What we know:
The protein contains five helices and six strands. With 155 residues, the protein is of the alpha+beta class. It has a five-stranded mixed β-barrel. The radius of gyration is 24 Å and the shape is globular. It starts with a helix and ends in a 5-residue tail after the last helix.
Amino acid sequence: MFNSSIANKSAIRNPQSAIVLTFLAALTAGGPVSAHHSFAAHYVEEERVSIEGDLVQLDYRSPHSWVYVNAKDQGGVVRRVSAEWASAPRLKQSGVTEETLKIGDHVIISGSPSRDPNDYRMHLKNIQRPSDGWRWPLRIADCGLRIADLLTIVD
């Protein structure tokens, strides 16, 4: 931070500086109310798991959207799995809106599992809806394009 003896000397010479320093110190001491987290702190990013089930809830929001699916665990017990997704603006840029997925849609999700094995949560990397072939992230091949179609040769 800063040396308090320096701040005290500055405060004696310039009262406005003391007010500004006090305000800045108070502002930084509180820290952010809602800090962004590292995915690696909550998920094992090097591993992949897949679930298949029915969509029961979609929270389309920032900083992260959430998909909730009822899926069977390894023992056949239906569990509600929470999948942390991208932010709403990022999803919108890739063509995903609040209307893309509907409650009851049967989906397959793959992603990184939670660091806590008792926590039915994952970091969503891919999602697909088998009924119509929709998937995210969208791949170039899904659009019928080839890399050569995207390249422009400049003479």
